[in-house]
């Protein structure tokens, strides 16, 4: 079988409790762009139990074909049957490109599937494009601790598989006039494919903060000085109805929970407004926030790298600037 026999773009749609995950919709947007550049079709594959009714929504977001693998065995995510199902779809469909969200599920599934179909995988891509001449997928991701951006190709095997973190690609426009094909797929699953038994599912009861969804982020760096000083940021966040996030230094110091970390090993965010407070602007941090609409940086060092990506820079002591700013905003409200 030759490489030219592989056609089209396939996006793995991750659903949890029958809820389509945001990253999958974002990947439909990117997938459509890639499919258009290749002059091919965009397909989506959804795997689960009683999930067929979600297929139409995927068409509204750009999928021209939706392949549904629906089986009681697939009610909860279990690595082996999901791997078998996705591998079977890929072997049957022979897509040229496969995109998967770099979530905990996507990170579990995609390396196993790529090994089973004997191809490569580029994880945690921050940009994807098509080489105009060779039509290869150009998969770009930070490498060597974020010091360089590496563009990786997969010239000798198909499909070209890539994972992308939530929040990196833009969510496409929903168009309810779109139509498409919904295809039932029998992956030939057997009860023996389930090699573990789920006895109980315990949900984390802690309120989950999703900084990726916040329109406004007040982000703390080591320059905040102490956990006690974080209170200034919470006050500003409350005034502006935003969330508090931070650099890895702040998370490592135990001033914030890990789920609020922005950057290469944290979350990728693109809020309307990002306040960088006492953050130096290390490449690993900037990689997770540079796409923000407006960046305001406060740092006492006028040469701090964060000012290179900031739209507005304030040179000053955060512990003085932030309370003053909060006061001024309060005044504006009355
Ligand atoms: P610092 O670099 O210490 O900067 C503190 C800044 O505060 C300085 O610029 C200083 O001038 C300023 N300052 C000090 N006092 C004040 C004051 N009173 N008022 C105003 N400004 C003040 N980092 C991340 O953030 N996210 C990641 O996901 C991440 N992933 C990483 C992955 C790898 C593989 C590696 C190697 C590193 C990673 N890092 C990450 C760490 C990153 O390299 C930096 O060390 C980190 O971002 C620094 O955090 P910071 O800017 O808060 O602290």
Automatic annotation (TrEMBL):
Signal peptide annotation: none
Annotated CDD domains: ETF_alpha (cd01715)
Family matches, as InterPro entries: ETF_a/b_N, ETF_a/FixB, ETF_alpha_N, ETF_asu_C
Top-level taxon of the source organism: Bacteria
Transmembrane segments: none
Domain Electron transfer flavoprotein alpha/beta-subunit N-terminal: 9-194
PANTHER family with a match to the protein in the record: ELECTRON TRANSFER FLAVOPROTEIN ALPHA, ELECTRON TRANSFER FLAVOPROTEIN SUBUNIT ALPHA, MITOCHONDRIAL
Designated name of the protein: Electron transfer flavoprotein subunit alpha/FixB family protein
Species assigned in the record: Alkaliphilus flagellatus
């Amino acid at each position: 079988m030759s490489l030219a026999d592989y056609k089209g773009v396939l996006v793995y749609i991750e659903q949890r409790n029958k809820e389509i995950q945001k990253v999958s919709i974002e990947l439909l947007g990117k997938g459509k762009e890639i499919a258009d550049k290749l002059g091919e079709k965009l397909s989506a594959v959804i795997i689960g139990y009683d999930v067929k009714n979600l297929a139409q929504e995927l068409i509204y977001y750009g999928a021209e074909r939706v392949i549904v693998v629906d089986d009681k065995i697939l009610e909860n995510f279990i690595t082996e049957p999901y791997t078998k199902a996705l591998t079977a779809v890929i072997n049957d469909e022979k897509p040229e490109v496969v995109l998967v969200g770099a979530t905990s599920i996507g990170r579990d599934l995609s390396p196993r599937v790529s090994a089973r179909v004997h191809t490569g995988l580029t994880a945690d891509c921050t940009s994807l494009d098509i080489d105009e001449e060779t039509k290869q997928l150009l998969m770009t991701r930070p490498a060597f601790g974020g010091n360089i951006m590496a563009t990786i190709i997969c010239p000798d095997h198909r499909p070209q598989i890539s994972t992308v973190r939530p929040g990196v690609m833009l969510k496409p426009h929903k168009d309810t006039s779109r139509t498409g094909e919904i295809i039932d797929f029998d992956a030939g699953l057997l009860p023996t494919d389930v090699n573990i038994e789920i006895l109980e599912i315990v949900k984390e009861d802690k309120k989950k903060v999703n900084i990726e969804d916040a329109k406004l982020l007040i982000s703390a760096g080591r320059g905040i000085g102490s956990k006690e000083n974080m209170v200034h940021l919470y006050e500003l966040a409350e005034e502006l109805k935003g969330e508090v996030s931070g650099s890895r230094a702040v998370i490592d110091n135990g001033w914030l929970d890990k789920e609020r970390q922005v950057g290469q090993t944290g979350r990728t965010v693109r809020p309307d407004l990002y306040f960088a407070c006492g953050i130096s602007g290390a490449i690993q941090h900037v990689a997770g926030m540079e796409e923000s609409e407006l960046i305001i940086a406060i740092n006492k060092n006028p040469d701090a790298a964060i000012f290179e990506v900031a739209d507005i820079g304030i040179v000053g002591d955060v512990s003085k600037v932030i309370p003053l700013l909060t006061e001024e905003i309060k005044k504006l409200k009355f």
